[in-house]
Amino acid sequence: MRQTVLKWRTTCLQWRTLMNEKSAAEALLAEMYSRAKAQFGSAVKAYWFYASEVCPGCQRPVDTWRHKNREALSLNAFIYRERGVLIGYLLCERCARDIFRAAKKHPYQQTPLHTTIEQNLIAAYQHHMASLDA
């Protein structure tokens, strides 16, 4: 999936803006879902957004960072194949930069950080689904 960068502010004074940006993130995830559905067909059945304020890679707070002289967040997604769910998530600056660096050195190769992120997101998704059953 192509990484999408989304501007995001997290101060309490900008709650309305934050809600609009969360809506924008969800709209971008819906677009990513449409593209994944077009590319992978019935292998992708649904999408879910990991809306935690902590990074699934390192458990630090998700924060804005400077990318091409603008404040940005890194919106990413992967397909949880076992369930056919596209899981969207945000990364902290450190993890996003690590992945960008690794992609330049070794394009199209999964890193140990990718594996950690996927394991944490699968666990979060399973926890979310179990909470719906309760």
Protein model, in words:
The protein has helices at residues 15-40, 93-105, 112-133, and strands at 4-6, 46-49, 65-67, 70-80, 85-91. The chain is α+β, with helices and mostly antiparallel strands. The chain has one domain (4-133). Strands 1, 2, 3, 4 and 5 form a five-stranded mixed beta sheet that branches. β3 and β4 form a beta hairpin. The chain is globular, with a radius of gyration of 15 Å. Mean pLDDT is 82; it is low at 1-19.
Largest sheet: 5 strands, mixed
Our count of helices gives: 3
Shape: globular
Straight-line distance between termini: 33 Å
Order of helices and strands: EHEEEEHH
Number of separate structural domains? 1
Which consecutive residue ranges, at least 5 long each, have pLDDT under 50? 1-19
* Percentage of residues in helical conformation: 40-55%
* Class from secondary-structure proportions: alpha+beta
- Rounded to an integer, what's the Rg over CA atoms? 15 Å
- Number of separate strands: 5
Topology:
Elements: E1 4-6, H1 15-40, E2 46-49, E3 65-67, E4 70-80, E5 85-91, H2 93-105, H3 112-133
Parallel strand pairs: 2-5
Antiparallel strand pairs: 1-4, 3-4, 4-5
List keywords for this structure.
134 residues; alpha+beta; five-stranded mixed beta sheet; 46% helix; globular; disordered N terminus
Task: Give a quick precis of the structure.
The protein has 134 residues and is α+β, with helices and mostly antiparallel strands.
